[in-house]
From TrEMBL:
Biological processes, Gene Ontology terms: pentose catabolic process; pentose-phosphate shunt
Annotated protein name in UniProt: Ribulose-phosphate 3-epimerase
Cofactor dependence: Mn(2+); a divalent metal cation; Zn(2+); Co(2+)
Source organism: Sporanaerobacter acetigenes DSM 13106
Binding sites annotated in the UniProt record for substrate: S7, H65, G141, F142, G143, G144, D174, G175, G176, G196, S197
Class of enzymatic activity (EC top level): isomerase
InterPro entries the record matches: Aldolase_TIM, Ribul_P_3_epim, Ribul_P_3_epim-like, RibuloseP-bd_barrel
Catalytic reactions of this protein: D-ribulose 5-phosphate = D-xylulose 5-phosphate
EC code(s) of this entry: 5.1.3.1
Amino acid sequence: MAKISPSILSADFSNLKEEIGKVEEGGADFIHLDVMDGIFVPNITFGPPVIKKIKAVTEVPFDVHLMIDRPERYIEDFIVAGADIITVHAESTTHLHRTIQYIKSYDKKVGVALNPSTSLESIEYVLEDIDMVLIMTVNPGFGGQSFIPAMKRKIQRLRKTIDDNNLDIKIEVDGGVKLDNAKEIIDLGVDILVVGSGIYGAEDVVQRTKMFKNI
Ligand SMILES: O=C(CO)[C@H](O)[C@H](O)COP(=O)(O)O
Ligand SMILES: [Fe+2]
């Protein structure tokens, strides 16, 4: 069964404690935190101080998606704030291998994210070092966009590479995941679904989280 990582990007930022409580009640496996710096992506969200505050209101592990330029500058801050999994973009750091080892030196799980146009070959030589690959299925920066169909091929190819080489890597998919395409995406071999507007856009967020869990 796929795990669910609700993204608070589409939650009510004035009421994060209650918003996180709803997905926790619905059975969320992770809380997905979209950190944007206005440089790597054309939007700005929040950073370590906010993460530190909300860490205190939930037991659910934090899945931190860094959409920031040169993330190695802030890794320690995000770990101190409460990140359990840290995902950096392959496009955002010149020395990806070094950044991965740096995150691992803190004994944290590490993921690498790929923009839609970035090929899987760019992470070929770090696959044995990472815990997760995050396939962006929209261009990063905003919630509520549509799933890019060509990403299905990318997910399938990654699934095959992981299975053929007996790698211990989870596949996370992020962007445009809705109730009506979730099953098709899971069937491609995805382990973790990030869902933002598909959960927080619902009238009943608890119920909607449960519906995703039951797919
Ligand atoms: O990383 C992201 C955007 O850059 C978000 O996690 C993602 O877009 C989730 O939102 P939605 O489910 O509404 O597409
Ligand atoms: Fe994300």
